[in-house]
C-alpha cells in the first residue's frame, strides 16, 4: 500500500498548479462562472494540447499518455483547489473511464472510436452518472440499432458535450418493478431527439444540464455490469481527489487569514475558539488525504480493495470537504458572506461535489453493503 | 543478502528461541530476566551510545529488529518510561558520571525508572509545579506531591522536576533531579482511577534528601530538561508491542450486532459504518505518517493529530458500543465477557483524552506548531513564581 505520491505525481501537480495560477486565477474563474461560457475554451485547449491532460489516463494506443489514477488524482487535486471550470472531470475522467472499463470487458469498438478524440481534447464527452432514485432512460433495439427515450435529470457539462454516455435499461429486460440491468450507450449530442436544458447550478463553476431523449439514436458501449461498477468506483475516487484539493485550499486560506486579521487587539488565530476549530479542520485534512491516497492506490494497484476504498473515499470526503468549506467561510466572519469574497465559491463547490454522485447516504449504504452489513 | 537482512534474520532467530511463549505482563522477576537476556544478546539499546552500554548501531538496525519482533509479545511494559523518556534524557543532558552509572543497568532491566512531573495543581501547565527543592549543604531537600506516575511501585529511580527558585518566572526556577525511589521520605500510593483499577500512582515527597550530584542538566534549567524528556515521550521504545483488537471497534461490534440480530436496524448499521469510517481514516493516517517517516519526512507535531484522533475515536467507539449492545453493557452477569469488556472500555476511554496532554492541549499544539498560528498572550511569562496564581484557587467570598 502506497500512501505518499510519487515524485512524478508531485511534479505533475506542481506544473498544473503553476499553469492554473497563470491562466485561470480566481478573477478569471469568476468571470467564466458568471458568463454564459461553461469553461474557458483557450485554457482547455492548452490543458489538452500543451499539458496533454485530456488524454492523461488514456492508453497510448488511443492517443493518450497512459498514466495511472495517481496522476489523474494529482490533476484533480489542483483543479479542485483552483476551482477551474473545465471538462476534465466529465470528459477525461468520467467518460474515458467508462470507455476504458468497457474495453477491458471486451467491448472495444466504442473505445476505439471515441477515445482518440477525447484524448486530443477535440471531443468533449461526458457520462451521466446514475444516481439512486432518479428516473432511468429506456433503450429500444430495432434491427441491431438502438434508440433511447427518457430524461436524464443532471449531466455534468451536458450542454457542452459532443458525446453523452448514458446508463440505460434495455426495454425487453425490464423487470416488473420497472428496473433491470443497466447498459451504457453513447449518444451524439447533436442528433435528432436530444434536447438539452442548462440547469441553474448552486456551484457556478460546474455547469450541468438536463437531457431529454426522445427516440434518440444511440450506440451500445457495453452491457457489462462490472465495467459500470468499476467506472462508478473510479469516478468516486477521482472526485474525492478534487475534494481533497478544495479542502486543503480552504484550510490554507483561512489559516493565513487568521494570522492577519486582528480583533480585540489580537490576531484572531490566537483565540482558542478559532484555533481549536482550525486544529480540528487540520485533523480532517490529514485523514482526508490518507483516505484519498489509499483509494487512489487501490484504483491503480488493488482492484479487490477498490469497491470498499471508493465508497470510503466518498463517504469521508463529501462530508469532510463541506464541513471544512463551511467552517472556513464562517471563520472569515462577515466578509465570508459577501459575493466578492471567494469563500462562497468553495462552500458551493463542496456541496455540489458532495451530491454529484449521489448524497452521502448513498455512499454510506454502498459501504455498508460492501462491508457485508446488509442482511 | 545485505548485512541488514542478515541482522534481521539473526534477531528473528533469537526471538524465536527466547521469546516465543512470553506473557505480556509477567511477574517482575521474569520481565527483568528477559531484559537481561535481551541486553546480553545485543538487542537492548540498539541505537544507544556504546560507551554507556548501548550497541551504537543505526536506526536501520533498530527498524530491522522491530520488524523481526512483529508477532512476538515482549514483556517490556514496565521498562517503557526508562527506555522512552528517562534514559534518552540522561544520554542527552546527563553528566558523564550519571551516564556511566545509570544507562547500562537501565538497558539491562536491572533498574526500573519512572517520571515525576505532573502535580495535583499542575496538569496541562506542568511548569506551574509547586514541589519545592531547597539546598542544604551538599544536598537538596524536597517536599511536595506528584501524580499520574506509571510504574512507580516497581521503580528504582525516577526523574523529578521541582521548584528551586520562586523569585523568577515559573519556567526559570525549576530543576531536574534523579530520585532514588527507595530513599526515606518517598511514599508511593496507587491511584485508583475511574475504571476501579490502578494504572498510576501518587507520590508524596517528605524531606527527601537528594545529593547535589544528582541534578540533571543545570540548576534552574529543569524546564528545558523536561522538554527534552517530553520530546522523547512519543518516540517508541521500539520493541513490537502486539496490537490486540480493541473490543469497542468495528469488527467485534459488527459481529455482535449480527449475532444479536440488530444488523437489520438501519440506525445500528449506520453507526457501524460511521465507526468503520473513523477507524479506517485514522489507521490510514497513521500508516501514511509511518511511510513518510521512512521516506525521511519528519512528522513533528503532527503526532498530536494522531493522539487527538485516537482519543476521540476511543470515546466514540465506547459510546457506540453501548448503543449497539444496549442495556446489557451497563448491567451484565459475571460470564458476559463482551459486555464486561465494553463496560471497562467505556470507563477507560476518557484516559486517552486526558493523559499525555488533554484534547485541548493537543489542539493548541496543532494550532501553534503545525498550522503556525499566533500564540495566545501569556500572562505567566514575566511574573515571579511567588506572585503567580497557580493550581485550584479557593472560591472567593461572595463569588
From TrEMBL, chain A:
<feature type="domain" description="Acyl-CoA dehydrogenase/oxidase C-terminal">
    <location>
        <begin position="229"/>
        <end position="371"/>
    </location>
</feature>
<dbReference type="InterPro" id="IPR009075">
    <property type="entry name" value="AcylCo_DH/oxidase_C"/>
</dbReference>
<dbReference type="InterPro" id="IPR046373">
    <property type="entry name" value="Acyl-CoA_Oxase/DH_mid-dom_sf"/>
</dbReference>
<keyword id="KW-0285">Flavoprotein</keyword>
<dbReference type="GO" id="GO:0016491">
    <property type="term" value="F:oxidoreductase activity"/>
</dbReference>
<protein>
    <submittedName>
        <fullName>Acyl-CoA dehydrogenase family protein</fullName>
        <ecNumber>1.-.-.-</ecNumber>
    </submittedName>
</protein>
<dbReference type="InterPro" id="IPR037069">
    <property type="entry name" value="AcylCoA_DH/ox_N_sf"/>
</dbReference>
<comment type="similarity">
    <text>Belongs to the acyl-CoA dehydrogenase family.</text>
</comment>
<feature type="domain" description="Acyl-CoA dehydrogenase/oxidase N-terminal">
    <location>
        <begin position="6"/>
        <end position="121"/>
    </location>
</feature>
<dbReference type="InterPro" id="IPR013786">
    <property type="entry name" value="AcylCoA_DH/ox_N"/>
</dbReference>
<dbReference type="Pfam" id="PF02771">
    <property type="entry name" value="Acyl-CoA_dh_N"/>
</dbReference>
<keyword id="KW-0274">FAD</keyword>
<dbReference type="Pfam" id="PF00441">
    <property type="entry name" value="Acyl-CoA_dh_1"/>
</dbReference>
<dbReference type="InterPro" id="IPR036250">
    <property type="entry name" value="AcylCo_DH-like_C"/>
</dbReference>
<dbReference type="InterPro" id="IPR009100">
    <property type="entry name" value="AcylCoA_DH/oxidase_NM_dom_sf"/>
</dbReference>
<keyword id="KW-0560">Oxidoreductase</keyword>
UniProtKB/TrEMBL annotation, chain B:
<dbReference type="Pfam" id="PF02771">
    <property type="entry name" value="Acyl-CoA_dh_N"/>
</dbReference>
<keyword id="KW-0560">Oxidoreductase</keyword>
<dbReference type="InterPro" id="IPR013786">
    <property type="entry name" value="AcylCoA_DH/ox_N"/>
</dbReference>
<feature type="domain" description="Acyl-CoA oxidase/dehydrogenase middle">
    <location>
        <begin position="114"/>
        <end position="208"/>
    </location>
</feature>
<dbReference type="Pfam" id="PF00441">
    <property type="entry name" value="Acyl-CoA_dh_1"/>
</dbReference>
<dbReference type="InterPro" id="IPR006091">
    <property type="entry name" value="Acyl-CoA_Oxase/DH_mid-dom"/>
</dbReference>
<dbReference type="InterPro" id="IPR009100">
    <property type="entry name" value="AcylCoA_DH/oxidase_NM_dom_sf"/>
</dbReference>
<keyword id="KW-0285">Flavoprotein</keyword>
<dbReference type="InterPro" id="IPR046373">
    <property type="entry name" value="Acyl-CoA_Oxase/DH_mid-dom_sf"/>
</dbReference>
<dbReference type="Pfam" id="PF02770">
    <property type="entry name" value="Acyl-CoA_dh_M"/>
</dbReference>
<dbReference type="InterPro" id="IPR052161">
    <property type="entry name" value="Mycobact_Acyl-CoA_DH"/>
</dbReference>
<keyword id="KW-0274">FAD</keyword>
<protein>
    <submittedName>
        <fullName>Acyl-CoA dehydrogenase family protein</fullName>
    </submittedName>
</protein>
<dbReference type="InterPro" id="IPR036250">
    <property type="entry name" value="AcylCo_DH-like_C"/>
</dbReference>
<feature type="domain" description="Acyl-CoA dehydrogenase/oxidase N-terminal">
    <location>
        <begin position="11"/>
        <end position="110"/>
    </location>
</feature>
<feature type="domain" description="Acyl-CoA dehydrogenase/oxidase C-terminal">
    <location>
        <begin position="220"/>
        <end position="371"/>
    </location>
</feature>
<dbReference type="InterPro" id="IPR009075">
    <property type="entry name" value="AcylCo_DH/oxidase_C"/>
</dbReference>
<dbReference type="InterPro" id="IPR037069">
    <property type="entry name" value="AcylCoA_DH/ox_N_sf"/>
</dbReference>
<comment type="similarity">
    <text>Belongs to the acyl-CoA dehydrogenase family.</text>
</comment>
Amino acid at each position: 500500500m502506497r500512501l505518499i505520491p510519487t515524485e512524478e505525481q508531485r511534479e505533475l501537480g506542481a506544473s498544473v498548479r503553476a499553469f492554473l495560477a497563470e491562466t485561470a486565477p480566481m478573477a478569471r474563474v469568476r468571470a467564466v462562472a458568471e458568463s454564459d461560457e461553461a469553461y474557458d475554451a483557450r485554457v482547455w485547449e492548452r490543458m489538452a494540447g500543451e499539458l496533454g491532460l485530456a488524454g492523461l489516463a488514456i492508453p497510448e494506443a488511443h492517443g493518450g499518455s497512459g498514466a495511472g489514477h495517481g496522476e489523474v488524482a494529482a490533476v484533480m487535486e489542483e483543479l479542485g483547489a483552483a476551482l477551474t471550470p473545465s471538462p476534465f472531470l466529465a470528459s477525461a475522467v468520467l467518460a474515458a473511464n467508462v470507455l476504458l472499463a468497457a474495453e477491458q470487458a471486451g467491448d472495444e469498438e466504442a473505445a476505439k472510436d471515441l477515445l482518440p478524440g477525447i484524448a486530443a481534447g477535440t471531443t468533449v464527452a461526458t457520462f451521466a452518472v446514475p444516481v439512486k432514485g432518479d428516473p432511468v432512460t429506456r433503450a429500444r433495439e430495432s434491427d441491431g440499432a438502438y434508440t433511447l427515450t427518457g430524461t436524464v435529470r443532471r449531466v455534468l457539462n451536458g450542454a457542452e458535450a459532443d458525446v453523452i454516455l448514458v446508463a440505460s435499461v434495455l426495454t425487453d429486460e425490464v423487470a416488473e418493478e420497472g428496473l433491470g440491468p443497466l447498459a451504457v450507450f453513447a449518444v451524439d449530442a447533436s442528433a435528432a431527439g436530444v434536447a438539452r436544458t442548462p440547469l441553474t447550478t448552486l456551484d457556478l463553476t460546474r455547469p450541468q444540464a438536463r437531457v431529454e431523449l426522445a427516440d434518440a439514436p444511440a450506440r451500445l458501449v457495453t452491457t457489462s455490469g462490472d465495467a459500470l461498477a468499476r467506472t462508478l468506483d473510479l469516478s468516486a475516487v477521482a472526485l474525492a481527489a478534487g475534494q481533497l484539493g478544495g479542502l486543503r485550499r480552504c484550510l490554507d486560506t483561512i489559516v493565513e487569514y487568521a494570522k492577519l486579521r486582528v480583533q480585540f487587539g489580537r490576531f484572531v488565530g490566537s483565540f482558542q475558539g478559532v484555533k481549536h476549530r482550525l486544529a480540528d479542520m487540520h485533523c480532517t485534512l490529514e485523514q482526508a488525504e490518507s483516505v484519498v491516497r489509499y483509494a487512489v492506490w487501490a484504483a491503480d494497484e488493488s482492484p479487490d480493495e477498490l469497491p470498499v476504498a471508493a465508497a470510503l473515499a466518498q463517504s469521508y470526503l463529501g462530508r469532510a470537504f463541506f464541513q471544512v468549506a463551511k467552517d472556513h467561510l464562517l471563520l472569515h466572519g462577515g466578509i465570508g458572506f459577501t459575493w466578492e469574497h471567494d469563500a462562497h465559491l468553495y462552500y458551493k463547490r463542496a456541496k455540489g461535489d458532495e451530491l454529484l454522485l449521489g448524497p452521502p447516504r448513498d455512499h454510506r449504504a454502498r459501504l455498508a453493503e460492501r462491508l457485508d452489513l446488509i442482511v | 543478502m545485505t548485512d541488514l537482512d542478515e541482522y534481521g534474520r539473526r534477531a528473528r532467530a533469537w526471538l524465536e528461541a527466547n521469546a516465543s511463549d512470553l506473557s505480556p505482563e509477567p511477574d517482575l522477576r521474569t520481565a527483568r530476566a528477559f531484559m537481561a537476556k535481551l541486553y546480553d544478546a545485543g538487542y537492548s539499546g540498539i541505537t544507544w551510545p556504546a560507551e554507556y552500554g548501548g550497541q551504537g548501531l543505526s536506526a536501520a538496525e533498530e527498524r530491522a529488529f522491530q520488524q523481526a519482533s512483529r508477532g512476538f509479545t515482549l514483556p517490556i511494559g514496565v521498562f517503557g518510561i526508562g527506555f522512552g523518556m528517562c534514559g534518552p534524557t540522561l544520554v542527552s543532558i546527563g553528566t558523564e558520571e550519571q551516564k556511566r552509572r545509570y544507562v547500562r543497568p537501565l538497558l539491562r532491566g536491572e533498574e526500573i525508572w519512572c517520571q515525576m512531573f505532573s502535580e495535583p495543581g499542575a496538569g496541562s501547565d506542568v511548569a506551574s509545579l509547586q514541589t519545592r527543592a531547597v539546598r542544604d549543604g551538599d544536598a537538596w531537600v524536597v517536599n511536595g506531591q506528584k501524580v499520574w506516575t506509571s510504574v512507580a511501585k516497581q521503580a528504582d529511580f525516577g526523574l523529578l522536576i521541582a521548584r528551586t527558585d520562586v523569585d523568577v518566572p515559573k519556567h526559570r526556577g525549576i530543576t531536574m533531579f534523579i530520585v532514588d525511589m527507595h530513599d526515606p521520605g518517598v511514599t508511593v500510593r496507587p491511584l485508583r482511577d475511574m475504571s476501579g483499577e490502578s494504572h498510576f500512582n501518587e507520590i508524596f515527597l517528605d524531606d527527601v534528601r537528594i545529593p547535589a550530584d544528582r541534578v540533571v542538566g543545570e540548576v534552574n534549567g529543569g524546564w528545558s530538561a523536561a522538554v527534552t524528556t517530553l520530546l522523547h515521550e512519543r518516540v517508541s521504545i521500539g520493541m513490537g508491542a502486539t496490537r490486540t483488537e480493541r473490543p469497542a471497534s468495528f469488527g467485534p461490534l459488527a459481529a455482535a450486532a449480527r449475532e444479536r440480530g440488530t444488523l437489520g436496524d438501519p440506525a445500528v448499521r449506520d453507526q457501524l459504518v460511521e465507526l468503520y469510517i473513523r477507524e479506517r481514516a485514522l489507521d490510514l493516517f497513521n500508516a501514511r505518517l509511518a511511510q513518510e517517516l521512512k521516506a525521511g519526512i519528519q512528522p513533528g507535531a503532527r503526532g498530536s493529530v494522531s493522539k487527538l484522533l485516537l482519543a476521540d475515536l476511543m470515546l466514540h467507539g465506547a459510546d457506540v458500543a453501548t448503543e449497539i449492545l444496549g442495556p446489557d453493557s451497563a448491567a451484565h452477569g459475571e460470564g458476559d465477557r463482551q459486555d464486561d469488556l465494553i463496560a471497562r472500555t467505556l470507563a477507560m476511554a476518557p484516559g486517552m483524552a486526558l493523559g499525555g496532554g488533554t484534547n485541548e492541549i493537543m489542539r493548541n499544539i496543532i494550532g501553534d506548531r503545525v498550522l503556525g498560528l499566533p500564540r495566545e498572550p501569556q500572562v505567566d511569562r514575566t511574573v515571579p513564581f511567588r506572585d503567580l496564581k497557580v493550581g485550584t484557587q479557593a472560591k472567593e467570598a461572595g463569588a
